[in-house]
Design brief:
The chain has 155 residues and is of the alpha+beta class. The protein has a single domain, classed as Trna Endonuclease, Chain: A, domain 1. It is 18% helix and 26% strand. β2 and β3 form a beta hairpin.
Length: 155
Amino acid sequence: MKRWEKFRTFKERGEWVELVFMAAAALHGYHVLQPWGECLEYDVGIERNGKLLRVQVKSSTRQAGVGYCCQLHRNGSVKEPYSLERVDFFAAYIIPVGVWYLIPAVVILKPPRRVKIRLCPTPDGGADYKYEHYREAWGLLAKDGRELSRQRTHP
């Protein structure tokens, strides 16, 4: 049994992935905050110079061709989509290979809005894929809101 298959529900797995993200962010020197409850659109806060970056944490184990399919919509009980007013980053963890993608929310939420993306953490051809420049892009968390709002597809 694979380690991520030990979780009984996707919610349990998601909580574990949030902890993995917080540990990785702390190792990269960021101050990590976790909101209380489940009413916010983001899972983790990153404090930088008194400002808060709001991070929605996602994960995938579902292989799709040479990559992995990552769903970027909210859970089934919430009808409204994520918004740029409430989320600054998506952090997507590809569990089988232990790779993070740190993607500014503007890249996902500006038209055309994406509800799923394919991430391809392969050593042999990944550079040709759209989101590869966000792989392990921890430095983006140090940028301010104005810099992030200018992001489209490249860091």
